[in-house]
Design a protein that fits this description.
Neuraminidase; binds 2-acetamido-2-deoxy-beta-D-glucopyranose; 6-blade_b-propeller_TolB-like; signal
Length: 370
């Protein structure tokens, strides 16, 4: 009995420590776009779904997509851009070059639920309460929804601001499209991040089920991507457009929108969001050792943050992110952010959980599975 009590006491202490042993934590899933370069010394590999622990260990490939290796011919990746997890159904949705592929949480039973031409689908998310998928398309500039089995596809919003083709097949991006997408189906908002055209580099939202005007929440972002919402904190990844562009994770406190503003209206294109502030979680300029790598020719590359996931329990918050550079040499990393100290002294601490590209592939999507 005494032993048991002592054990319980030590367990509580362990849980209360800023960095616990995370015995109870789940695991991570990474979507890897694969490598199709011909150049050496880069090996080629297929588009894959991977798992690993929240410590970055025990990485393994759960599933590979697209054509099998044929004898004598190299691996052919189909490419991928985004991963979404549905906790209520335990399905994973991978937006790939063939369309959206659904798998079980262990990668089994892959099924192409929304076939599309390569490059069309650029983002995907799951609305858990509605039981719907939402995704963004590049050539059409649309946001669409579908049931979780891929049926009942509908156009939710046309954000294209004009398309660059004559209605027949084409591979020209629309003037604008949703590089990242998020649905708050509790409060009825659709969020997306837009690159190109009028909304280039902004994070926007609009009512989910009405024609209401979009609001620009943040702008001036260099290739905004993945979005996450935790309480009132809306996070996004700034991927960076070029191999030397800075990259970051930032957030916007949505409670600002409820406070009285100088303008009577929420921000729109005609009233830019000058009154609103954004916060930076991590910026590549401040963590050179993590974000800069030299390839075999000596060229310096900046790894761009492609995806991240926010973990919160009663005690602490963590963010895991994946960053990669797909230049002549592929670099892929999984990094954990924790917070130390309190008040003004509270600061983010970054730790590379694995910097081995063989473990994480060329990561484009990251999910936490409990
Ligand atoms: C990865 O998945 C395999 C197959 O389901 C499983 O055996 C293994 O424990 C998983 N590893 C992690 C770290 O989740
Ligand atoms: C990770 O690998 C180690 C050693 O191979 C093994 O003992 C451990 O059970 C694995 N953990 C998970 C979660 O798969
Ligand atoms: C979306 O809007 C563009 C004009 O910006 C238009 O050309 C296109 O046909 C619209 N697409 C759909 C599916 O309505
Ligand atoms: C990051 O560094 C680049 C190059 O030195 C500089 O141009 C840019 O202003 C910096 N950005 C921030 C936010 O510090």
């Amino acid at each position: 009995m005494l032993v048991l009590l002592a054990l319980q006491a030590s367990l509580q202490v362990t849980l209360a420590l800023p960095k616990d042993n995370t015995q109870s934590l789940g695991s991570l899933r990474i979507l890897d776009t694969g490598v199709g370069h011909r150049s050496t010394p880069v090996p080629r590999w297929r588009t894959s779904l991977r798992n690993l622990t929240t410590h970055g260990t025990n990485a393994s490939i759960l599933q590979q997509f697209g054509p099998e290796y044929a004898p004598g011919s190299p691996a052919l990746p189909i490419g991928a851009v985004s991963l979404a997890y549905s906790p209520s159904t335990s399905y994973l949705y991978a937006a790939t070059g063939q369309g959206i592929i659904r798998t079980d949480v262990d990668g089994s039973n892959p099924k192409l639920v929304i076939p599309e031409k390569p490059g069309q689908i650029v983002s995907v998310t799951v609305a858990e309460r509605e039981g719907k998928l939402y995704y963004g398309t590049e050539y059409e500039g649309l946001i669409k929804s579908a049931d979780l089995d891929g049926s009942n596809i509908e156009v939710v919003r046309n954000i294209s601001q004009g398309i660059n083709w004559d209605g027949m097949s084409s591979f020209m991006p629309a003037n604008a499209y949703a590089g990242g997408i998020l649905v708050d189906d509790e409060k009825g908002w659709l969020y997306w991040s837009a690159s190109r055209a009028l909304y280039d580099g902004s994070v926007l939202r609009a009512p989910l089920h009405s024609e209401g005007q979009e609001q620009v929440l943040a702008d001036g972002i260099d290739m905004p991507g993945q979005l996450r919402l935790v309480g009132d904190a809306l996070y996004w990844a700034e991927k960076g457009r070029w191999s030397s562009s800075p990259t970051a994770i930032k957030w916007f406190d949505l409670s600002q929108l409820r406070k009285p503003q100088p303008q009577s209206q929420p921000p729109s294109l005609t009233s830019p969001p000058v009154a609103f502030t954004t916060q930076t979680v991590v910026h590549s300029n401040e963590s050179a050792a993590i974000f800069f790598e030299q390839d075999y020719t000596g060229d310096k590359q900046t790894l761009g943050i492609q995806s991240f996931v926010v973990y919160r329990d009663g005690v602490e918050q963590k963010i895991w992110f994946v960053a990669q550079s797909s230049g002549r040499t592929m670099f892929g990393k999984l990094v954990e952010i924790t917070w130390r100290g309190s008040g003004d002294g509270r600061k983010a601490v970054l730790e590379v959980l694995t910097g081995d590209t063989k473990d994480v592939g060329v990561p484009v999507g990251l999910e936490y599975v409990s």
